[in-house]
């Protein structure tokens, strides 16, 4: 007599549950909200500090009597330090956790952001701002990974874009402070004011101190990871699963060579190119934007403030389009790259002032959301054991343009050819659009991987495309069996 289904003991596979399945079943709750507040605040303060340099070109040159080719040394040195610190923070986050590197980066930005306001010479200012760049690079590298690894799958893309939206608000704050302070007070007041958000977020981070449950499981700290999951479940009003949670630990974490392994090499090379061209295009437009707008007779501070305000509706549009039910990650990236290039061409060749002012706002409307898409797409397509170093590699790629775009921008502006400045940036976004055609793996609507080792497909990964593939495979298996039976192939005999 057969055992009833209720009496049959659970098999080992049925009594296990993948970590990605567990996290994806939780609702978005108070724990997620606290992590979102920390990561949004961190990126807000980082973008506020990064945009500061855009408004310092003229006052710093006047303060220390610098020529046009001397000021670019500042962003050049910041780029060098940012390149090195991105790798350091990414590697540390994969080996020791997401929490500590993020808090260290926030503390660096807070301390040296304030101290740089008192720099007695240009070279001292360069050193101090380079240390601030060390902290902002660390925030960028770790921030998105920490939030991603805590989120449920539902609306993951939309929530990740919120971080970049807060970064845009940080840029708006910097533009507002520049508009309010620079025409009236010394630039040092402006630099000190821009460091205030980082100080506030650092204090909040020291109180809350969240850690990624994915990292804890992958690093073998199972009890700590389970404690975080219980906290998430309690604050999300969900029940903890009774099954054994599966996520094998890995020892070799945070190795940059893993990004160029057989399975990851292709996506690493293509994504690196897309990130590099995004940074080239963005900084080619942004670095000397106030000076350029002033040279064509438009109020630089007012227009730059309007430009940063224009980023916000673009990011809101990205929050809608990035979801799998709309365009998804890759098509959304192509959409914004295409219109960034188009708006830059219009900005270059239309000579009506008001139209040019509108065009540059539209450029930022389409250009800035690309960062939010890349910051969502990139950590999604890498496993937990390499996710931090993958983000570090991409931010190393975008540090290179910081070394050269300041000099390129200064050279282009010195030609007095007004259409050349935006045309150079349009070329970068056109090349980026072409390169996105090499991105094949769409992560929207799929679970996250925790290791490079093959894992059982999560229930969350099943979609119509997968079902079609499974049906096709089943049909092929039946055809093969029919042929084998027709040839009288014995059971258990392998066919070529």
UniProtKB/TrEMBL annotation:
Sequence intervals crossing the membrane: 35-57, 69-90, 102-120, 126-146, 158-181, 187-207, 269-289, 301-320, 332-349, 355-377, 389-413, 419-439
Keyword Membrane: yes
Residue span(s) of domain Major facilitator superfamily (MFS) profile: 34-444
Membrane topology: Multi-pass membrane protein
Family annotation (InterPro entries): MFS (IPR011701), MFS_dom (IPR020846), MFS_trans_sf (IPR036259)
Keyword Cell division carried by entry: no
Cell location: Membrane
SUPFAM superfamilies in UniProt: MFS general substrate transporter (SSF103473)
CDD domains: MFS_SV2_like
Keywords associated with the record: Membrane, Transmembrane, Transmembrane helix, Transport
The protein's name: SVOP-like protein
Lineage of origin: Eukaryota, Metazoa, Spiralia, Lophotrochozoa, Mollusca
